[in-house]
Design brief:
Elements (H helix, E strand, L loop, with lengths): L6 H11 L1 H10 L4 H41 L12 H15 L7 H7 L2 H6 L6 H9 L9 H19 L9 H15 L1 H9 L3 H6 L13
Helix pairs in contact: 2-3, 3-7, 3-8, 3-9, 4-5, 8-9, 9-10
Length: 221
């Protein structure tokens, strides 16, 4: 059954979402709560679709980076051989503790899966230029790619990922460009994976769908 957008239910939705969360949508809707709610739903749907691509990007970047470093250091536990910063060493220890809390063995594969996107993004920072980028990671990307440009892109996508994960509004972003950046970055490593993710993404379809601006009670026709 279609949702009943009665005045009482709209008030209940406002309270459930909170005035602070609805504020950017109300501003964009020029105070029309109906349109604000439709914008909120659109943001939710686009965030969901975009996060599916982010998930593919995150898993692919993680695995490609891990494989390159395993090969370079000749060990599945390459982090024990690399001179990582305290920040990254702490991330690995936190991953091990989290795995131990589940009463399972902290295998290299589980540790890799537990490490967040920030960890993998940091491995492309200036600190690791000569330690990781030049000898091991440069070969993953086009030869013309500079580490600085790449790290800026990865950091941009990390911030995007966090905004979506924390349910923040994307209304002020160019999310079509965000989507294209995600696919482009994946394609730098593997055009095949990029095309596969794009083929199975619902983002473009949802992006092109427009909101219903006709209020069901103000204009029931």
């Amino acid at each position: 059954m279609p949702f009943d957008y009665s005045e009482k239910n709209i008030i209940r939705l406002e309270r459930a979402i909170s005035a602070e969360r609805l504020k950017p949508y109300l501003v964009r809707a020029r105070g029309d709560i109906w349109i604000a709610l439709q914008l909120y739903i659109r943001n939710q749907q686009l965030s969901e679709a975009l996060y599916g691509v982010v998930q593919g990007y995150e898993v692919f970047l993680r695995n490609a980076t891990d494989n390159a470093l395993k090969k370079g250091f000749g060990s599945d536990n390459w982090w024990e051989l690399a001179s990582l910063r305290e920040r990254e060493r702490d991330d690995i220890e936190d991953a091990k503790k989290s795995i131990a809390g589940r009463a399972v063995e902290a295998t290299p594969g589980r540790i890799v899966a537990e490490l967040n996107l920030g960890f993998w993004t940091n491995l492309y920072s200036n600190y690791y230029e000569h330690m990781l980028w030049v000898p091991y990671l440069r070969g993953l990307f086009p030869m013309s790619m500079s580490r600085k440009k790449l790290h800026e892109r990865l950091d941009f996508l990390k911030i995007l990922r966090n905004r979506i994960a924390h349910h923040e509004t994307l209304t002020r972003r160019n999310i079509q460009q965000d989507y294209e950046y995600l696919l482009e970055t994946i394609g730098w490593i593997s055009p095949t994976v990029r095309d596969w993710i794009a083929e199975n993404s619902c983002f473009q379809e949802r992006y092109e769908k427009r909101i219903q601006k006709r209020h069901p009670f103000k204009d029931p026709a």
